[in-house]
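pls read this stuff:
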Amino acid sequence: MGNFETFDIDNEIMNHLKTDDDIKEWLSLSLEDYMNDGDLNSFVSALEYVVRKKENISSISKKTGISRSNLYAIFNGTVTPQFNTILKLLKELGYKFKIA
């Protein structure tokens, strides 16, 4: 086989989330996708990237009062987050949920 470089999707996404505007657009598009296809796990995955870019799991856990184990379960797809959990995360990250 030839010389293929390893493609790290996580690293690529994190590198593209450079500014707050990039992050807002990423979350908005992810939420729009969820509204169209109902794939909550995809939106939660996008939210996890934002948490990891702006904070870390431990600090967001302390700030929101959501246990680390629950956050990990949400982000790995074993627990479906409640709406108020999503709102807490968005608020702590500095974003508002708004109907347009």
Observations:
- Residues 87 and 97 are 7 Å apart (CA to CA).
- The helical segments are 9-16, 20-37, 40-54, 57-64, 68-75, 83-92.
